[in-house]
Amino acid sequence: MTALSILDLVRVSDIADARTAIDNARDVAAHAERWGYRRFWVAEHHNMAGIASAATALVLAHVAAGTQTIRVGAGGIMLPNHAPIVIAEQFGTLATLHPGRIDLGLGRAPGTDQHTARALRRTLTNGDDFPQDVLELQSYFRPAHPNQAVQAIPATGTEVPLWILGSSTYGAQLAAELGLPYAFASHFAPGLLLPALEIYRTRFKPSEQLAKPHAMIGVNIIAADDDATARRLATTQQMSFVNLFRGTRGLSLPPIDDIDSYWSPQEKAQAQSMLSRTIVGSRDTVRRGIAALIAETQADELMVVSDIYDHAARLHSFDLIAEAAASANTNLRSAA
């Protein structure tokens, strides 16, 4: 059975300031827990007015405190921005407060622009040290050795599970080599999804953390009571991508009736390419889309992004997605 999880963008809009966005994320997680989702992740983004998850560990602490059983984690922390020991201390603290519920996904990109990367006091070449930084970070979560000079307290011994995130084949190769679970960002970079999964699975080496490959794929899903309503809700995300292309990143925008009046033909082609794995529609449409995606990729887990302007509509979307996924999994098992 393919598990279902959520990547929340912690969206800020004209009707939801940063505090409301963070509270909304916690509310989504609480509902998702009841609907059977396995994980709830947020990602590190900096200098983006429309996203309130820059201080990722603090947002996760708020979410974890408002839930009971769902796993909570970063999808991900952009490790080149940080000293590994600091991340170990943050996530070791989370694991101490919420044992057995914390995940740590790691990305190689800075996740921001060059000006902000400099403001973070990290160089733009730290991505070359990514494998070594992952191993260093992993060591801090293991039990301490006698006479160990540096410990990331209270991370020592918490064994927080690491994930490698990626949008190319690089992350697939590293996750396979280290024997770690792998999450592919097909919700915005779908082009190399299938080659990356093939590399990860064929080259995987078992580790202490993971005996066999575990592949998660990101997917945008917008669900509503009917296809037309879902398509309208999806214009919020489409406009967000267009604004990213234009260099005018801002708040999350309300949906519009005619997306063609917003984007140029070139912007449309670029956005549709990046969103080509998106599933939009009613519960039955979403069920068929999920079933096809699972059949094609054999993914162990789907990490769902449902980027919707209105909080109530987003909750309804996640509810419908959970129902659709359960039905899709049942049908796939029956067919097997």
General description of the model:
The chain is an alpha/beta fold and about 325 residues long. The chain folds into 2 domains: about 1-160, Alpha-Beta Barrel (TIM Barrel); about 220-335, no CATH class. About 45% of the residues lie in helices and about 15% in strands. It is built from 12 helices and 9 strands. It has helices at about 20-35, 55-65, 85-95, 115-120, 130-140, 170-180, 195-205, 225-235, 235-245, 265-275, 285-295, 310-335; strands spanning about 5-10, 40, 70-80, 100-105, 160-165, 180-185, 215-225, 280, 300-305. It has an 8-stranded parallel beta barrel, surrounded by 7 helices. The radius of gyration is 19 Å and the shape is globular. The model has no long low-confidence stretch (mean pLDDT about 95).
